[in-house]
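Example A, followed by Example B.
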Amino acid sequence: MSDNQKIFMPSRPLVPGSERYGLLSNFEPGTRTLKAGTQLAPAFRALPVDILFDKDVAVTLRDGTVTYVDVFRPVGAEKVPVIVAFSPYGKGQGTSASAMGVFALVGLENSILSGLAKFEGPDPAYWCARGYAICNPDVRGVAESQGDSVLWDRQEGRDAYDLIEWLGVQEWSNGRVAMSGTSYLAASQWFTAAEQPPHLAAINPWEGMSDTYRDLVMRGGMPDTGFAKQLRDFSFWGNGQKEDIIAEGERYPLINDFWENKIPRYDQIKVPAYLVSSYSNTLHTQGTFRAWRRLSSPDKWLRIHNTQEWPDYYDEANREDLRCFFDHFLKDIDNGWEHTPRVRYSLLDLEGGDRVAIGANQFPPKDVTSTKFYLNADTRALSTEAPAKEAAVRYVVGSNPGSVSFIHRFDAETILLGYPKAHLWVEVDGADDMDLFVLVQKLDVYGTPLTQFTVPNHNARLHDVTDYGGSILRYRGSDGRLRVSLRRLDDDLSTDDIPAHTFNRVDKLATGEIVDVQIDLLPIGLIFYAGEQLRFIISGRSLLGTMMPGIMEYTSPNTGTHIVHTGGEHASYLQLPIKNI
């Protein structure tokens, strides 16, 4: 890809007193010692040990660009491994009003951290006390670092490579570097590991998208850019320019070499990897599971939790679990990590009885069978037997209800575990395209939809912001989406369980044309007890709303009447992964 395919816009400097400016955001190069007992601000945890703080250290990248990093390391002569938190979020923003506000929203106490941590990254107070250094970079184009910032592409991978190689040869370093963090800090690890820096010893992507087109800008082929706009407008503060991902999406609505540059080379990721995911993050889940399936590392582990990434990442037991992984690969400690199950998954029941940390050798486990549940337009039921009679059901886009659904009641306890997909025969009247949104929803025995908060905060404010939207804060089921004109499958990447689309060709619908589409839904781990029901919804509008409060919602250009065909030669079905009990 040539750089002239990118579109840039001016950045803005991070201004003292603004909501993303923290106590350590000032540019003050030098080394100082933070003494044990130091408390950056009353809200934060006191430091448990003395920490050497190398602030605003210049690191020159291969093209001559100078970037600045903060390094926190233990006091003493022992050489230590380093953990990198790579993102465009300011390295000094851990005490900012923005970071503290996020914790307040989800119900986390700021006192679980020291204020030294980068947003969504490892806390130096914890890791330095256990013999690790933490590196928080201001990446290319951010704060005082030179250059123009880019968003999730191989340029970031090369920049992180250069930083890792610099860290690996510092006199205090043991030569082994790892990466850790959630969201952006997870996604940047795919690109970095694919570059194979020699000093990179392990990665820990804790929920992160892995395909900028399919996960962020054009999920399902739809330009749903609410979060991408927020990311563009409220990150990458600096003195140069920043990439305008919204303008790029408008210029390149189909997959081309520009977007290919923003897809990691999964097959080149060969370092030990400990991935963490959930079923409930509509931005990160699909990408984390995709990377898990495709990366080449022979030493890879996956843990699927039952909450949201921030409370999970900073949970004390989970940090100790991660330390066991890092101790094994960065310090050669014989702690039995190699006996950890390659997969540990959760099962949700949305009624307070979640089951967690269930071990398996793969995901989904071998005792899972993909089972087709056929749609019946006459009865609105789902059944494992295909209806012999053809029928159709329709809804007018923009009307009330503007959707159709089908229900199945389970006679015995049933566990869904793996990858659902929808294979539908559809038609549109009065238009030439369709945006389809689908959702697998759990109902109790009385037909009441069940949901579950993923964060500790369950107060009135969380109800307000998740009644419609806030999908990563409240789980409502497994969803999927597809623009029907982009239904062409990628034969190399698709499997019977997981359809993958090329998104490189538009095939509009002719009047009266019935086409079959396959839609991938988010991975699922869900328990249904006897008498409980599964509802499958098909709609022309988003069924979950935005992923976070305050984000612009996608409005589909859909018009006309959507028609779903069932039975006979057009036997639409929902394929579900059923675990043997």
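Example B, a separate protein, is given below in the same form.
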Amino acid sequence: MKPSFFARLPRRLRLVLLWGAGLVLAIAAGALYANTVFFTVPPPPFQPLRAIANTDVNPFGANFFLEREVEAWKRERTVRMARDAGIGWARQEFIWAEIEPEPGTYNWTKYDEIVNLFRANNIQVIARLDRPPAWSRARATATGSSGPPDNLDAYGDFVQAFTKHFQNKINYLQIWNEPNLAREWNDSPIDPAGYTQLLKIAYTRAKAVDPNIHILSAPLAITLGESFSENSAQYRNMNDLQFLEEMYQAGAKDYFDILSANAFGLGNPPDDPPNPGELNFQRVLLERDVMEKFGDAQKAIWILEYGWNAAPDSIPDSRLIWGRVTEQQQADYTVRGIELARENWQWAGVISIWFFRQVGDIQSNNPEAYFRMVDIDFTPRPVYAAVSAAAKTYSVAPPGEYEETNPALVYQGSWSNLLEAKASGGEYARVADASTSSKATLRFYGQALALKFQRQPGAGRLFVTMDGQPVAGLPRNETGQSFIEQAASQSEWRVSVPVARDLMRGVHVVEMTSEGQVNLDGFIVAPIAPPQPPWIAIAILAGFALLAFGVGVLQARA
């Protein structure tokens, strides 16, 4: 038998190669051990499921004024910059007077374009519905009143038409805005019971069209019940806590799904504690106390106007309604406040920064201009960079249990959220149009993944790939695609199906494609298993033993 190539080499060269192999093995095993045990940043602890509906969401939202932007390229660039910063929610005003200039005559064109632009950039819309047309009320004031119509049913008609027109495109409606300010309530006496009646009509009419629509109460202006400036009829108002109490007393609890709030820092840091006699970010905790007092603790709070004002020194203190911080403080406080809410307030959901970018109608000598994340000329401010960095951490799900609304899940196609008491968190995501294929992409960091969903008669299949490959352990069709069968003889909620086990450490990407009527009700990412040092140690010892052997033989033959 002819000797192998290695055996025909000179003995000294064979020993050198053997010595080198041992050295390489020792270095590789040592590097693996060091990377596994010493140098790898440990993943965060397992995240418990957020039990209150509408809280396991991307917390980063912002306010937009696209209805005022004339040029399409500016609208498009604004939304792209928001998407690139990780903004997941757009609070956008839909002006009733523009949409319904005459009773029963609707003009949707401008707002269709705005909604389609947000959707194309994977940003969900929170629609603020107010600013009634002149025909709906006999009295308007010189202060720019946005008060209710004379006949509240006229607003109900508008909300119903709006819900029908944007069904499956807009799922969150804010009913009016800051009704505890006189300028928002027609300069008539502030009326919590009157607003509650408006809320009830809007809720009832919207739910009649789409039972799955989410109704948000109007956020209340944070105020101590005093004018911002003396002798200013424009800012007559009612204390927000008193207004909320009287809303509940009038029966508001049954007519909204999410409580809206405003939370400005007014020069104070985000950890400044709540105080009924002060205005600060944590004043929202006092509104939460009112909710709990009236037995409404299972609803989320979304903060729809949030931020700190970074007006320059050129603006005198006498004009600083919202206080003043530096731009770096604005950036730091904005991110810290959102992190504080996520870590400590299990009822907190979306937090919409006031504001992303204005269109040029707020002058530079007006302190309000300095809430902006982006200048009129599209120059990003420090707060934009801070939010961009913070939001990226939500694009990958660490170990934990999550709802289908978690920002690590990105949907494409006709997915929509449906309210259902049997589902985890009270709702689930389902493909609205079963005749077309829809997709969902999940990025996670862990070693195992399970998907949660509902099995039901007539359901379809969810085709699944892991890091671009079919998933081992799942059944496959005739073309080799791995899938999860959701059809069953009877309905079963909160089914959990393992999708992957024993994955390598790192970020993994799951892509899901629908065939027929499919749904998602959340997912579970298993934690990273601890390393196994004994096996690595054995490899290291083997490498050194081989090294020592080679060296010894080499010396003996020298």
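On Example B: Residues 11-39 form the longest helix (29 residues).
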